[in-house]
Design brief:
The chain is mainly β and 335 residues long. The protein contains no helices and 24 strands. It is 0% helix and 47% strand. The strands form six sheets. The protein has a four-stranded antiparallel sheet, with no helix packed on it. It starts with 19 loop residues before the first strand and ends with a strand.
Amino acid sequence: MPSTAAGEPIPIETSHEDMIHDAQLDYYGKRLATCWSDRTVKVFDVVGGEAQRSTGHTLKGHTGPVWQVAWAHPKFGQILASCSYDGKVFIWKEQQGQGASPGGWTKIKEHTLHKASVNSVSWAPHELGAILACASSETIDHDGNWDAAVFEGHAIGCNAVSWAPAVQPGSLIVPQPSNTVPGQQPTAVQSVKRFASAGCDNLVKIWGFREETQAWVPEEVLEGHTDWVRDVAWAPNIGLPRSYIATASQDKTVLIWTKDSPTSPWVKTALDPSASSVSPTGGASAPAGKFPDVVWRVSWSLAGNILAVSCGDGKVTLWKENLKGVWECVSDMTS
C-alpha cells in the first residue's frame, strides 16, 4: 500500500464485491470490521494504521445485505454483532486456537425474532452487561443474556439506536454520601438503562428501563425533523450535567439536542454548513441549516466533544462547539 502523508486518509483494499455499508474499529483500534451488500462481514487486523489483508477473516451466513456491525466491550471477549436485510442478527466470537488447531470466528448466536430488515445494532455500555439493542423496519428489541424483549418503537419502522452513557448526568459533581464506614467499599453510583431510537416517522424517542415492571417505557419524544431520521448518536459522558444527542435525517439536516440537567427539556440546534469557516459544501449551494445531500450517519469522538457527520455527497465533516455555544465545522474530508 502506498504511503500517505500524516492526516491524509488511508485507502483500504477489502476485496468486497459490492457496496460498503459500515466499518467499525474495535475498542483498542486494533481490529476493523466491515460489512457490505455482498452479504459478508470481514474482520482485519490493523497495524500502523493500515488493515492487513493477509490476516483478514470473512464471516458468512447472512442471506441479504449486511447493514451494520458493532463490537462488544473487550471485557466480554472478541465479540461482534451484525444485522442484515434478511431480518437476522448474528453474534460472532473469535475462538483462540488450541494446539495445531487454528483459531477463527464462530457464530455463537442467531437472533431471528424480526420479520423485516434489521437496520441497526448497538451494544449497551459495558457497566450494564452484554446487552444488544436492535432496530428493525418493524420493532425494537434488546437482547440481554440472549433473552429478548421486543416492542414497537416507531409506527413505520426504526432506522437506528444509540445507548445513553451508563452514568447519571451530573453524578461527577454531585457530593457523595460521607457516611461510609472506614474500610468498607463506597456505595456504587447507580447505572442508567436508557437509549434513543430514530424512526421513519420523523421522530427520535428516548426509552428508559423500569426495574419495578421490568419493561422499557418511552420517556420523551424529540420532534424536529421533517423526513426519516437516519441515525442517532448519544454523546459519551463521564458524569457532567449536560447531555448531547445528534440526529441525522433524510431532510438533509443534523440536529444537536442538548439537555442541561436531568430535569431540563431537550433543546435542538441545527448544524449550519453555510455559516462555517471551513465550508463542507465545496461550493455546492444549499439553504441555511441544510447539507447538500441526505445525511446518513453521525458519530461522536470518545471524549464526546467532536461530532463526525457523513453526508450523501461523499464528504465527512467534523464539528465542535465553541466557547459561545455555537457549533462550527472544524474539518472536512472528501472520499
